[in-house]
Amino acid sequence: MLTRQQARKICDRILDYSTAKRTEVTLSDADSSLTRFGKNTIIQNVNSRDVNLSVRVVVGKSAGCASTNYLGESSLRATVERAVKQAGAVRPERNIAPLAGPGKYRRVNNFVGRTAALTPEERAEAIRYIAAKCRRAGIECAGAYSSGTHVLALANSKGMFAYDKSTKAEFGVTVLAKNSAGWAEGASRDCAKIDAAKLSDIAFEKAVRGKNPKAVPAGKYTVVLEPAAVTDFLMFMGRGFSGQAVQDGTSFLAGRIGKKLFGDNITIVDDAYHPDNSGLPFDFEGTPRRRVVLVENGVVKNLLYDLKSAKNAGTKSTGHGLPQPNPYGGLPLNMVVEAGDSSLEEMIRSTKKGLLVTHFHYCNVAERRELVLTGMTRDGVFLIENGKIKHPVKNMRFTESVIKAFSNVEMISRKRIYASAFFGGGFVVPAMKINKFNFSSETKF
Predict the structure, then answer these.
(1) Which of 77, 93, 162, 250 is deepest in the core (most CB within 10 A)?
(2) What is the pLDDT of residues 128-141, one digit of tens each?
(3) Do residues 302 and 292 touch, judged by C-beta distance below 8 A?
(4) Pair (185, 334) in one structural domain
(5) pLDDT, tens digit, for every residue of 300-352?
(6) How many domains does the chain have?
């Protein structure tokens, strides 16, 4: 992997080669390993290393980009030349994002040596446990155990240089019975914090307990959502906190800043420095990340900005920019939901009639203004009656407003986990008990 000194040397050479007054460099180096399993056996073990260098220049009011996977001298020069040539061939932009200057970045501990050193044999040993357990029970498991190291370096002609080295491991398992499935997943920068055996037991129990599910009618239910299900709601909420989206009128928060939108018990921050997150101390423009309170006791407090949207709004970047060109503005990549004072077990015991939901699948936005989502339950739904799980339930489709759902949260768990989002990334989230949650149709499976 590229060290800080090596990355800086490459970035400096790009800046020296560039004839443009404004030059930005993004350099990434990813070493990724994956062990995949299915039908109770390992079916794939791969390792890849991908180095990518991207150069963006501004000539006059036109921007050009070029990239390469080869860091040889001739390739570096040619990449800069291609970026400059492209800038001369495209239309001028009305509003070019300013450059970030040198910044002071907080120290974060994103790199864990034992994760970087995780071997195929160690990943296979973790998989061996659930494979043997399923084999004995006459059912099947599938999933993957991945690990890797990632380096990101940024530099520009204004003197900014930023470097981060991180690790991440992720174990996910699905257990498949005749007409049921169970699922569990864990992710962390530190592989020692992933208890693959415990996660495997959870998925196994859900699959066995979920055999022969019964249909229940569509309608409004009290639901107990496990953290992975809560994560899907946050993922779709995130873009709404973009200052650019509010300026454009495409955010569900347009005209609602400073207003009470959710329940009193909902507080959400974007915090790259939370110990369970693995966020960068800088954004993709090189601006130091700030911890920002997005929602406090149900009231929408702040929006997020990159350099361009901040300039348009007459404010400062919050350190939430993506690589330019970026039409989305600042986005929250490290959301944290404030913990409550309950537990998943207490939520179930307090429910007279409701549904326990493991997670959702294939969610999409059905209506933007009220942020109405629709999607399916997956890998474990159970009917709760009089504080006890009565029987498994066939999957159902929900159609519900995130605003309404987060206004009807009755209980929030003390325990929070880092849960991966369906389209990448993840957030630190608790379990939630939500009243009057709308299921719009039944399914046959």
Answers:
(1) 162
(2) 999 999 999 999 99
(3) yes
(4) no
(5) 999 999 999 999 999 999 999 999 888 999 999 999 999 999 999 999 999 99
(6) 2
Going by their DSSP bridges, the two strands 353-367 and 335-337 should be labelled as unpaired
For residue 203, which amino acid is it?
A
Q: Is 303 helix (H, G, I), strand (E, B) or coil?
A: coil
Which of these, 239, 232, 281, lies nearest to 421 by C-alpha position? 232
Please return the burial class of 163, using the count of CB atoms within 10 Å of its CB with bins 0-12, 13-18 and 19+.
buried
Of the candidates 379, 385, 389, 374, the residue with the CA atom closest to the CA atom of residue 358: 379
Classify residue 341 by its DSSP letter: S
Distances (CA, A) of 417 to 91, 274, 347: 46, 11, 17
Please check whether residues 389 and 287 belong to one and the same domain: yes
In a domain, 437, yes or no: yes
Residue 281, preceding peptide bond in cis (omega within 30° of 0): no
Q: How many CB atoms lie within 10 A of CB 115?
A: 21
- Tell me whether residue 206 is in a domain: no
- Reduce the DSSP state of residue 191 to 3 states and report it: helix
HSE toward the beta carbon, residue 300, CA cutoff 13 A: 23
Tally of CB atoms within 10 A around 49: 12
Closest by Cα among 93, 99, 103, 74 to 23: 99
Token couple for 120:
């195929």
Distances (CA, A) of 21 to 14, 18, 78: 13, 8, 18
Answer yes or no: are the C-beta atoms of 108 and 164 closer than 8 Å.
yes
To which H or E segment does residue 405 belong?
helix 402-405
CATH number reported for the structural domain that contains residue 64 in this entry: 3.30.2290.10
Rounded to whole angstroms, how far apart are CA atoms 427 and 406? 16
For residue 15, report the phi and psi dihedrals to the nearest 5 degrees: -65, -35
Domain span at residue 416 reads 213-445
